[in-house]
């Protein structure tokens, strides 16, 4: 399948089923202007529909992962003296990205190759798994310009690191280096910068060979668990397991287990 | 309802072109089948749907009916191509919505099993049913104002009765889509299930109802619908007469005997 051309994003589907999405505005630390945010929304929609995509690896080009909102871009500019409509900007640009990262029924891994600031950090938090280089850093810079952490940060960060640590990071806007990020559970794995993509790709390859349908159901379960009571959750879980129990991959998994061999999952 | 086999109308369920009709375990399932048009409700489709509903209503093999579409669309409205060039007089003389009134006259319970789009006429069709089970991906809406008209198959009346004035005003005047979650919260639908299971959930509900005494179910449905058309006094009067009427049924005797004898009732539909 042809890899669609994006201008500020690289969409590269590998033969192993891993889609590598690279934020590609390196001269601006991959900060989000309107184009990049709309391209990322489009790319995630395309990945959702494409059955050949079985895992997604999100990273940034150059020395940074993503510096967040490009404050010069037109949708947030204050140049004409009136207040920008940040609410509209979030609803149209960041909300669809965060929602899609959380609800797309394939694993999404983030390879944080440098600084992740503002919405750039928030997007990393919304992914399912995080690799970071030793030089990476996370900054919830919003409060320093008089805004609240957006793009889902107040939702995801307390769940990742606990409320106390999340409040510290969001109220101070201080920089968290990679070592601290690893120790508080903000990232899953650290690696040297020259092996980041190889390690992240190896991990994504194993995910892409996994039971994709079950990964999708797992994400649905976790999302439901984050916003309902235990009884409703358990009911929902029963429904999802009912669905998982009918997949080809469950059948294959059980056969492989009894035959003492490695399963070959189709994702169905 | 019991009738001799000879009185049952004949119907070749495989002869339909725009719907797929099946009967299984006393549940009749009608699937709208114009997938390339997102199941837009054309006049030929409506004719088949109503004919099939009429047959299922009379058939002894059916006790509860499900109307469904496919995962992507329950029904995405009326056929706009058909209406784009129509004049007032043509619409009036065609009177296509009159056919919809016959759905309301069906005695057996009808469940809409909705996934994907239920817009315009599709939303109205779902609301004309007695209950709605939806998939998480369902989207309801009355977008008619966006093309210069208003709902014409009961939308302004049924949505208002289902969700109240303020919510109905907002949904119809903006033409926006309503998610399954929101539809559940505002009382438009009965249940939400994962997309893989919504039809099964609807069938489970249908089977549960199909196991009840059919005459009681019929009179309960009639009494509930009566509440939309009448004063509380008239409605209570209707309900009371229906209640007394059921004392003439064999199933009432069976139901009460079974209760007293602590066993499961065997209802015959008499």
Characterise this structure.
The complex is a heterodimer of chains A (268) and B (270). Chain A has 268 residues and is of the alpha/beta class. Helix content of chain A is 45%, strand content 15%. The longest helix of chain A is centred in the middle third of the chain and has 18 residues, at 86-103. With 270 residues, chain B is of the alpha/beta class. Chain B is 44% helix and 16% strand. Chain B has twelve helices and ten strands. Chain B has helices spanning 43-58, 80-83, 88-94, 98-104, 121-128, 155-163, 165-174, 180-185, 198-210, 214-226, 232-245, 250-260; strands at residues 19-24, 27-32, 64-68, 73-75, 110-114, 117-119, 131-135, 139-141, 177-179, 191-193. In chain B, strands 1-2-3-5-7-10 form a six-stranded mixed sheet, with helices on both faces. A four-stranded mixed sheet of chain B has the order 4-6-8-9. Chain B is globular and about 65 Å long. The interface between A and B is small, with 7 and 4 residues.
What is Rg of chain B?
19 Å
Level-1 CATH class name of the largest domain in chain B: Alpha Beta
CATH topology-level fold name of the largest domain in chain A: 2-enoyl-CoA Hydratase, Chain A, domain 1
Q: Rg of chain A from C-alpha positions?
A: 19 Å
**Beta-strand fraction estimate of chain A:** 5-15%
Number of structural domains of chain B? 2
Q: Which geometry of chain A do the CA atoms define?
A: globular
Approximate helicity band of chain B:
40-55%
Largest sheet of chain B: 6 strands, mixed
Q: What is the overall shape of chain B?
A: globular
Weakly predicted, low-confidence segments of chain A: none
Helix content of chain A: 40-55%
**CATH 4th-level superfamily of the largest domain in chain A:** 2-enoyl-CoA Hydratase, Chain A, domain 1
Q: What's the overall average pLDDT of chain A, rounded? A: 94
Strand runs of chain A, count: 9
**Can you tell me the CATH architecture of the largest domain in chain A?**
Alpha-Beta Complex
Q: Major sheet of chain A, described briefly?
A: 6 strands, mixed
